[in-house]
Each structure stands twice: as structure tokens, then as C-alpha cells.
């Protein structure tokens, strides 16, 4: 009798499951420069802990609306105990009673997260901008420019990877300390007036390639592993005719292009001392604000990815909001040759570079991209959602990958 009941129960369960059988959902990967950098260490924690920080509410609403499975946040201040991140997750992302916004969204839980120190705001001990001064105390513009990565205090402009899929914590590799001079044929800047190297040998000994950090974070997807390659290369501006930031931007982007090609990755060493890049045929998704627009602005270094033949080029994430903003803002935007629907950032159009395509989610060719977008609704599409996007100067960019 008991076994008969079990058999009926089993049939019911199997029947129920079959009735619900659906094709596997695509996996949504996203990158978002959230611009949650404060003006002093620990300030972001203080701002967030009321649960009512307006900018953080808007950022959380965007994430809750788009619902990425894997999300890289750029410009989220790092603190060693992860307090700001925990508060943001609990009081904003997964909060059932998120207040202060007229947009209605469902809470979102990220069971897995990775964050670590970055080079931003860490003193180099050298005069890296060559203005004759090496400022030792945090907080001044010269201190920020002389740091290993531009920043007014350690942790500023940090990075966070959030995931609903398990992260292979033991497999994570970081490249925060990899020295720029160790890259073969590195684009090390020259002083155009003297013709000599911009950085002294002693400076190059202490200068990392990565302005924030470079992370290879493996994500488990059933029996498969997808490597998330996260970074935030320095903007190619805020320097002089030597173009030290433009040179660094180029090589920071090149690093991961080399990393996924075994024949080019031999020089790479991670922070634990392990050599080499990804094994041939690995699946990967490049995420980050790469600070490079293929057609406009001051760095076209991202073309290294587009011409590599290694990543899917279609569909290109786009939005109506980008198109609208370009027309509304005018100025430099009218001179751009890139399609404004593909812009992912909004900068001043007279004194600044205008709106650029800087943020990327690029997948290795073996992965099938079903859909892609920039979260930038036009006012005419949805005024409230449009207003949320003003919380950052960048927009969230996403791609949907078919489960392999
Ligand atoms: Ca200096
Ligand atoms: Ca110097
Ligand atoms: Ca543009």
C-alpha cells in the first residue's frame, strides 16, 4: 500500500514537472558604473545606512528592474569589511519596503558576491604626474594623481561582482599587482618635450598596469564554467601631451585580450604568482566600463576586442534614451560618428566629450547572445524610469546568453 502510494506520488511529481517543463532561461550578464563613490573613506557607509539615500535607491531600482543574474558594479567604494556592500544589498536590493521612489520593483537577492581592494587612492610614493611634488597625505588632487590608480582615498571607485549563480571562489584570479612594465611592448608613455621615458625605472618598479584591478571570476552554470573578466580601465583623459592615461587605458584593455589567447598570455602573472591566461576554448564574458568608445572620444582601444574575432559583435546594446539625449544635448554629440543609440554614458556636451559608448558586456564567440540592451528609457517611453537613470553618468548595459 505504502509503495503504491509512493508510486502515485512519484507519477504526480513527474507529471507536474513535465507540465512545467520550459526551455532553460537565458542568463543575463550586466555591467553598471553606479557612480557610488563618496568624497572620503567610509562616507558611502554613512550615506547608505539610513536606507534612504536617493541615488542608491535609484541605482537599486534600475538593478531590480533589469534583474541581471551576474552584475559588475564599477565605482562602488570598497571597504575592508564589505559594510557598504552589505548595506546596499540588504537595505536597497533585497528590501521589500524600498521607499522614496514612485517606481515599483521586486526585491532581488544575490547569493554570491566578490569584491577586493583596488589600486585607486593607494599612494605610490612617487611623483607620477611629474609636477615636481609627491603629496603624501590623502585627499588632495596631487595625491590622487600620484596614486597607483587615480583616487582621493583607498577604496574609492571600487568594483563589486554580484551573482545569483555560484562563484567558484577558489578559481578566482586577480591581477591588481601585475606591473605595467612586465607587458611585452607596453605602451609606456614618453615625455614629448625631453623625448625620454615619462616614468623613472624606480616608478615602473612600483607601478601596476591596472588602475583599479583586473579579475577573472569563474561562475558555475550547471556543468559549465563562464569566466567573468572584470575591470575598469582608467579614463584616457586628465593628463598631458604625454597621454599617460590614454596609454594605460590601451594596455589595460589589451591585458584581457591577451589573457584569453594562450599564445599571447605567457607573460601574465596573477597576484598569487600563477602564470598564464585562460585555457583555449574557455567561455568568458568581459564586463566593465572600459572608458573607450570605438568611434568617438579620446580612446578607441576597445577596437582591440572588436577586431580580435574572439567576441560576439551582435546584437549591439542600444536604447531610445541614448538617441534622445544626443539630440537634446547637442554640442559635441553632433560631431560624433558613433550611433547615439549605442551610447552608454552622458557627459557635458560643450566642455566635455558628449555621450559615449564606454560600458561593455562582451561574450566569447562560443556563447549565443539572444538579446542585449542599454537601460536608458526615453522620456516618451517611460518618464519615471527615465528619471531613475540620472542617478549615474553611466547606463546599465546587459546581454542575455543562452545557457550552453
Ligand atoms: Ca605629483
Ligand atoms: Ca615621476
Ligand atoms: Ca556618442
Query: How far from one another are the termini?
Result: 43 Å
Question: In CATH, what is the homologous superfamily?
Answer: Endonuclease/exonuclease/phosphatase
Q: What structural class do you assign from the helix and strand content?
A: alpha+beta
CATH hierarchy class name? Alpha Beta
CATH T-level fold name: Deoxyribonuclease I, Chain A
Number of helices: 10
Counted beta strands = 11
Percentage of residues in DSSP E strands: 15-25%
The number of domains = 1
User: Sheet bearing the most strands, described?
Assistant: 6 strands, mixed
> Helicity, in percent?
10-25%
Query: Spans with pLDDT under 50 lasting ≥5 residues?
Result: 1-5, 7-19
Cα radius of gyration in angstroms: 22 Å
Average pLDDT number: 93
Strand order of the largest sheet: 3-4-2-1-11-10
Present as ligands are: calcium ion
Element order: H for helix, E for strand = HEHHEHEHEEHEEHEHHEEHE
CATH architecture: 4-Layer Sandwich
Gross geometry: globular
Description:
With 404 residues, the protein is α+β, with helices and mostly antiparallel strands. It has one domain (23-120, 155-401): Endonuclease/exonuclease/phosphatase (Deoxyribonuclease I, Chain A). It is built from ten helices and eleven strands. It has helices spanning 2-20, 43-48, 54-66, 83-93, 141-146, 201-206, 244-259, 303-306, 320-329, 383-388, and strands spanning 27-36, 70-76, 112-115, 159-163, 173-174, 215-221, 224-230, 283-289, 359-363, 369-375, 396-401. A six-stranded mixed beta sheet has the order 3-4-2-1-11-10, covered by helices on one side. The chain has a five-stranded mixed beta sheet with strand order 5-6-7-8-9, with no helix packed on it. A hairpin with a 2-residue loop joins strand 6 (215-221) and strand 7. The longest helix has 19 residues, at 2-20. Residues 1-5 and 7-19 have low confidence and may be disordered. Residues 127, 129, 131, 133-134, 142, 145-146 line the site of one calcium ion.
